[in-house]
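Inputs:
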Amino acid sequence: MTPPESTQTDDAAALTGSHLPESATTVADNVDIPTQVSDDQVDESIPEEFRYNLVFNKKVSELRALFEEQHRQIREEGAEKPKRDVAYQSVICDEQLNQIPLDARSIGLLVQADDQNPAMLSENFEFSLILAMGSSSPGTIDVPFDTSVDTREILYQAESAGFGVNLLPPANATVINAEVEAYCDLIRDYGRISLHGQSCNIRVSPIDGYMEYLLYAELGYKPKVISTDEMMNLLYTDTMPEVVMDHVKACIAEVVIEVLGPDFMKDLVVNTVKALHLKDLQFMEARASILEAELDTRTPFPNMIRILAEATGLRGADAAGLLFELKNAIHTVLDKYLPSDPVVEPEPENSTASSAEVKNADGVQQVDPEEKVPAEDSGMRVRAPNTKQADLAKALCLMASSVAGGPDALKAVWASIESATQLDQRINLDRETTLPSLAAGRVADALGVAPKVAALAAGELATLLQVVLEAGGAIEPPPPPATPKPTPPSGLIAVG
Amino acid sequence: MRSEAIGFINVTRQCNVDCKRCYLTEEHRAIKERLPVATLQQFLQSSFWADRDCTLIWEGGEPSVIGPQAMQLLVDTARRLLPSARQTMVTNCFSVPDWLLAMVHEEFDGLVETTYALGNKFNLAGSEVIYQERFLSGLNKFWSAGVPCVVNVELNAETVQAGADALVDVMLQSECKVWEFDISVDFASFLKTPVYHPASTPALPLTVPYQKAWSFLADLRERHYARLTRAGITIGVFEQNPDAGNLQFNVLSEDRFLTLNPDGTVTTNPLYSDLEGTILGDLHVSSLDSMIISRNRLSRISHERRRIRACHGCEHVSYCGGGPAHVPVFDGSGECAGGLSIWNSSLRMQSA
């Protein structure tokens, strides 16, 4: 497919793409790139955290001095740590990059050839790349148009560092001259390797920008502005007159068609749509797994909720709501008819009952279920002793004890329930270091849930009974975990 | 955020088990050295650990031989200096005292790992049988106490020779439900005649060709994995998928591994603890920050990256990463360190 007729805007978009978040950019004074964006061009509507300054062609030794000065200011003058809002591009590795300035938002290292073998990278560059990769700043490898370093070598390095590659055009190229042709050759070299197969997964500018532009055009989208990424504008758009840009663009088109074939655009659109669809599926899967994790961390009965959802067809959130409303309803009724003991000490500041809790003449507390109880009040309600509800629990336990044949017999019944529901194995079940019981397996088969879920849900159900038995004094609550006592070395080690 | 940093801390190199091909010298395994708290402090007070996820792995020798008080002091010191770092331990399970169980629960979030092989491991009196018995007993003690101790089986010549059936017997005898596998290296031979690549990376000899090691695993999967799965046993290498990447030890990790010896010397990979050519420096003489930017470390990272160029053209390279970086990608056996045949069959099964 042939690219559409060019316009200045199309040309620029073709080279730069618009792959980065919108940014407002200023260029520092020391830049020797011809185009500068001054402060007054900064779009104030862009949030400050997306604005950054571009600094080109600093030496590593200068960055070291800057880093030391920033540290001195923090240490000696109590200065604040600077914001990371400077993109250092085309950094010259005159020494190893051991420190990155504290204000560095990103680092672009200018390719440097080895003195002995110009096709290879210098050790300074390679070690600086490793150290830059280990920093918090993302980065690029900036390749000058006249580099002698082998293309594959740079792409290997970029790929292992996770850095993008910027192919830098000659400065001040106003006409198509030998330097521009050398730049086009460089683009062809990188295009042939980076576009071939799926092994190259890094961004190579401006080739990727051009591909994005073609995709936009195919989909009928025309960006309002040349590019939202000012760094790309500075590197490519603003430094090239139209005639040079058309030539470079034709060169990229040529290599894209050479590698991907004339019908590559159809494949590109199809693959892009497939990728979008896949991303959407992955997003939904990720969301589902986050909700699953939330269920475990934020609800006391996650597996009962899962079973309820499976059995009723309700969504997880609705199943959770159903269970919680049931639980709240039970508490509301119990609190209404068997209210907490009056709080004597300390004297509450506001002696009038809240609008949610009003006692009527016969002493039955009226609870308005619609009234929201503040968290601290709710906490107080839980902590306040409730002898009436405790008496109810005792009465229930007495009845159960009578049916079972005495307190010891009731304890034995509870022990068998505890064992059957694997209540004491919940942690191991959850970690999958203990297998669910056969009964849990059968429940799982019947309900269509995982055996682990069935086993854990049985335990969760049993804890409801456990709470009543403990409140009624039929069983003892488990003792708190004992503090481990360090033992002296056994002396069995025969070495040394 | 930078990639997760892993600190391996050899609290001692003394050991209560005699592995004939151990990466530590016999001399160090017999000396009763202990890591001083001050040395640990120096190790952890570095920008290397800042602004990133960190895991500290207590190792040895056998770390538990230093006893509960000394171990607790080191754990507390590390917790104070790097409060958000995860801590765990690699123990040989030869002796699992109660204090270690309590510490694993309280300090390591219940996480601990061990290593194992069917042969070439002895107790200090030279008994292979007693080693095997004590290992199983220690391992079972962890699992009975709810500690899911993962076993890394060293695929050494003896294990491969014994065959998958023998290993399956051990797996089913134990209560352990998670088993992993490591490539085996003959460190004893290397320590006798050390050979390094120009980039200070040791040229380590294998104990068994890749082809035999991966065939052993293929046999294990084909004939036994269904039964093991029914028994609740999981083997990570059989469950691997591209999304999770390669879970083998030391895949593209040279830049995020640092290992501290009790004498204050520092290297990258814990397997290099006693390999002199890899030592970055001594904390008594230089700071960790200066070791991070040392030529020794950077050239080894560079070598690790160049190493996987041998994988060019392999469809699995983006997630396999060339397998463990301390061994060559290819050994001439037709297989590779990353386990090409296992990746091929795993992906076939997942797409079936």
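Confidence is low (pLDDT under 50) at residues 1-13, 17-40, 351-382, 484-496 of chain A. Flag for discussion at group meeting.
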